[in-house]
Amino acid sequence: MKFANSLIQWYLENKRDLPWRNTTNPYPIWLSEIMLQQTRVAQGLPYFLRFTEAFPTVFDLAKADEEQVLKLWQGLGYYSRARNLHKTAQQIAFELDGNFPSSYKELLKLKGIGEYTAAAIASFAYNENVPVVDGNVFRVLSRYFDVETDIASAGAKKEFTLLASELLPKGKANLFNQAIMEFGALQCVPKNPDCTSCVLNDSCLALQKKKVAQLPVKLKKTKVTPKFFNYLVFLDEDGNTLINKRTEKGIWHNLYQFPLLETATALDDDAILSLIKEQNFIANEIDTVVLYNTENIIHKLSHQHLTIKFWKVTVKGKINGGIDCKSAAEFPFPIVIFNFISKYWF
């Protein structure tokens, strides 16, 4: 009980003033939880504010066009979250008359809502006695109780959820879950936590055993695949270009891009020109091919490291289906392409 009380007292004195904490409305709570998955609060907060301004209710989000949702999400990454967010909003608005389910088990039935998000909504909005277990909670519990279970292992989630359940003070799920997550985010941070100022330093087993830096244990490493992306920025005599929608499954699904040549290695001008001629991107005769970015752009994703080049490909005549640069910039792009557009076009 001391553990829970100390955490809650610390939270009440140190918590950040965040808009989704000043309400029990499940809609903004749900939005914030989806946005903050694998995303820092400082990065996610401006997106949350833009979303709630554009879509003040779940009905507004449900009625929006997917491209508008993706455009607002641009730069936040993990775009499947945005697509699922939109579909879930439609499910809640059109099938449930705008009413969020009021229990953990019913929330789990919604598309795109897993155990963590369902527990967060159930406890924050309805104070249901269910624990929330995220990376911060793994870290706090593994250090305080000296749990050496590999958090990437199959049974880790169940073990830590059970431990969190035992610690959860009944009737205070909202406070406790917020407290332990905030404690992991601000105090019990991954690297070099300030244990001297920690309210739990007199009873933390990891501190007593000098194991703070070794916990939590995470043995499984993500395999990272290197890829080379060559974006072809076609420009005709009117300054129009060509973009297309990335329809294949995987990263950046349903976002827009310039025609892409994905290669196993980096290519020079002559090799790119030969590949372009082999493809069927446009019917126009190619005039010149030069690099926009003389230095490679490295874009790191969770499972892929992309080496990116943008090639300026001028062509003769007018491109069939071409679009002017200003209009093209209004479409939702992966942030690496949007940054290129901002730098070289505007």
Automatic annotation (TrEMBL):
<dbReference type="Pfam" id="PF00730">
    <property type="entry name" value="HhH-GPD"/>
</dbReference>
<dbReference type="InterPro" id="IPR044298">
    <property type="entry name" value="MIG/MutY"/>
</dbReference>
<dbReference type="InterPro" id="IPR029119">
    <property type="entry name" value="MutY_C"/>
</dbReference>
<keyword id="KW-0479">Metal-binding</keyword>
<dbReference type="InterPro" id="IPR000445">
    <property type="entry name" value="HhH_motif"/>
</dbReference>
<dbReference type="GO" id="GO:0051539">
    <property type="term" value="F:4 iron, 4 sulfur cluster binding"/>
</dbReference>
<keyword id="KW-0408">Iron</keyword>
<dbReference type="GO" id="GO:0006298">
    <property type="term" value="P:mismatch repair"/>
</dbReference>
<dbReference type="InterPro" id="IPR005760">
    <property type="entry name" value="A/G_AdeGlyc_MutY"/>
</dbReference>
<dbReference type="GO" id="GO:0035485">
    <property type="term" value="F:adenine/guanine mispair binding"/>
</dbReference>
<keyword id="KW-0227">DNA damage</keyword>
<dbReference type="GO" id="GO:0034039">
    <property type="term" value="F:8-oxo-7,8-dihydroguanine DNA N-glycosylase activity"/>
</dbReference>
<dbReference type="InterPro" id="IPR011257">
    <property type="entry name" value="DNA_glycosylase"/>
</dbReference>
<dbReference type="Pfam" id="PF00633">
    <property type="entry name" value="HHH"/>
</dbReference>
<keyword id="KW-0004">4Fe-4S</keyword>
<dbReference type="GO" id="GO:0000701">
    <property type="term" value="F:purine-specific mismatch base pair DNA N-glycosylase activity"/>
</dbReference>
<feature type="domain" description="HhH-GPD">
    <location>
        <begin position="35"/>
        <end position="186"/>
    </location>
</feature>
<keyword id="KW-0326">Glycosidase</keyword>
<keyword id="KW-0234">DNA repair</keyword>
<keyword id="KW-0411">Iron-sulfur</keyword>
<dbReference type="GO" id="GO:0032357">
    <property type="term" value="F:oxidized purine DNA binding"/>
</dbReference>
<dbReference type="GO" id="GO:0006284">
    <property type="term" value="P:base-excision repair"/>
</dbReference>
<comment type="function">
    <text>Adenine glycosylase active on G-A mispairs. MutY also corrects error-prone DNA synthesis past GO lesions which are due to the oxidatively damaged form of guanine: 7,8-dihydro-8-oxoguanine (8-oxo-dGTP).</text>
</comment>
<dbReference type="Pfam" id="PF14815">
    <property type="entry name" value="NUDIX_4"/>
</dbReference>
<comment type="similarity">
    <text>Belongs to the Nth/MutY family.</text>
</comment>
<protein>
    <recommendedName>
        <fullName>Adenine DNA glycosylase</fullName>
        <ecNumber>3.2.2.31</ecNumber>
    </recommendedName>
</protein>
<keyword id="KW-0378">Hydrolase</keyword>
<dbReference type="InterPro" id="IPR015797">
    <property type="entry name" value="NUDIX_hydrolase-like_dom_sf"/>
</dbReference>
<dbReference type="InterPro" id="IPR003265">
    <property type="entry name" value="HhH-GPD_domain"/>
</dbReference>
<dbReference type="GO" id="GO:0046872">
    <property type="term" value="F:metal ion binding"/>
</dbReference>
<dbReference type="InterPro" id="IPR023170">
    <property type="entry name" value="HhH_base_excis_C"/>
</dbReference>
